[in-house]
Amino acid sequence: MFGFSRAQLIAFVILVAIVIVSPFIFYPIVVMQVMCFALFAMGANLLMGSIGLLSLGQSAYFGLGGYVAGYLVQSYNLTPEAGIVAGGIAGAALGAVFGWLVIRRQTIYFAMITLALAQIVYFVAVQDTDITGGENGIQGIARGKLFGTFSLNSDMAMYVVVAIIFLAGFLMVHRTIHSPFGQVVKAIRENEPRAISLGYKTDQYKWIIFIIAATLAGVAGATKAMVMGIETLTDVGTATSGLVVLMVLLGGIGTIFGPIIGALIVIAMQYYLAPFGAWVVVIQGAIFMLCVLTFRRGVIGELAHRLKTQL
Fold it and tell me: Between the CA atoms of 298, 299, 303 and 304, what dihedral angle is there, to the nearest 10 degrees?
C-alpha cells in the first residue's frame, strides 16, 4: 500500500516496535523530542535528498508552528490536536509564500535566500511581544484534553499522540517518495533539463516538495511545543536550521530512515552529554567528525551501501 519493499517493511515493523517499548525503557520526554525532531528532519530530507536543495531556513516553519500552536492553545483554549493542525497549516502557508520566492534559485543562492527569509521570521518573533512573548517566548502551554475528552497531562498519554503523529508523518513521506510524483521529483534532481524537455513543470514540483517540508516542520514544531509546554526563540533561530541539516547528514541524505537516526544521535548527545558542561561542544565535535569519517554517506546510507556490496 505504501510502496514498502520487503526489507523496508521489516525495518518499519522494527521501528514501530521500538516506538512502543521506548517509553518503558527511556525517559518519555526525550523520546518524544526525538520523534518531533525526526519528523522535522524528514521534511528537510525531502528537500535535500529528493530534490537536491539545501534550505538553511527550516527553523522558520518549525518555530512558527510552535508559536501558532502555543498561542492558540494558551489564548483561545484550543484543543491540542487543533493547535497542532493549526501549526501545520501555518507552516504550509509560510512555506507556500517563501517557496514561491526562492524555488527558482539553486545551490548557494537558494540556501542564502532561505536563511535570509528565516531571519525575518526570527526578527518578528523577537519584536512581537504580545503574541510570541519576545525573548521570553510562550510559557506554560497546557497540553489540555485530546478532542476535549482525553487528558494529555500524563507523559504516556502525550507519548501516544506524538507516536501516532510521527508514524503517520513517516508513512506520508515514504509514500511521497515512492509515488509517481516522487519519481518525477527524483528525475528532476538527476537531470532537470531533460525533465523540462519531457514537459514537466519542474518549478511546480519543487514548490510542492518545499510546501510539504514546511508543513512537516510546522507540525513537528507545534507537537514539540505541546510536549515541552514552552516555545522560545531557539526553535526559530538559525542554529535549529543548522541542527536539522546535521541530523540529515548524520543519518544519510535521501534515505527514509536516515533522519530518524540522525535525530536520535543529536538529541541523545544533547541530553546525555549535559553533565560534561563546557566539554559538551568538544565531545560533540569529535563524535561528528568520527561519524563523517566513518560514515561518509551517513549512518543509514553507509550501512545500506555495505549491504548492497556484500550481496
Answer: -50
